Amino acid sequence: MEMRLMLVDDHMIFLEGLQYLLGTYGIEVAGMAGNGREALEKARVLKPDIILMDIKMTGLSGLDALKLIKSEMPDIKVVMLTTSEEDEDLFNAVKCGASGYLLKNTNAKELVDMLTDLEKGEATFSPELADKVLKEFRNYEPDVSEDKKLTKRQLEVLEMVAKGVTYKDVGEALGLTERTVKYHMARILEQLHLENRAQVIAYAARMGLVENWGHHTWCPYFIPEAPPAKPSFLLMFMGGY
Length: 241
Prior knowledge:
Elements: E1 5-8, H1 12-23, E2 29-33, H2 36-46, E3 50-53, H3 62-72, E4 77-82, H4 87-95, E5 100-103, H5 108-119, E6 124-125, H6 127-137, H7 152-162, H8 167-174, H9 178-192, H10 197-206, H11 233-238
Parallel strand pairs: 1-2, 1-3, 3-4, 4-5, 5-6
């Protein structure tokens, strides 16, 4: 798999084990950092495609680092990889621009599959957290007049993205380049005063651009349940399985 991946965690044994495990799937880790400040500095140099980052770290936290990274390098996709199941951490991460939120009990194959989905433009959430995200952001209340600001083309892009279509496939369907689709999405975010894709999808649902809110046939946050009896990657490389 060709991607530039950076790992951030303040437990070196975890980082080294995860790096080794991802390597068995052909994923090369471009760099590692032990805290949020180091993550920001290395991201500037390495310019990774994806960052897997813990939340609770000494010094600069993962959430604070997320804000700084996304404000300075918005194209980098950041996924929180943590043990925290706290709603506040989850919602703050999404509001700050996280592309996903995974728990450390995720098994190895699921993690690799989610990274692949992330490259295609899909969000990645642990199954037990996906519904929480949907319920939180469906309550977003836009101004009544906001939908009038969108052009016909923007509404077409918005509808397809909200249904879980990747930017590349949206472009092919509408005769646009992927870069143009991303431009339209950036303009939609700006015009509607939204912060991230989760709020865009919630807005589309409230405006009736998509049906069956929360149904897995279109929802990009839906992740199938994991098969039973699979070891988590944490247990695998820590020798607990």
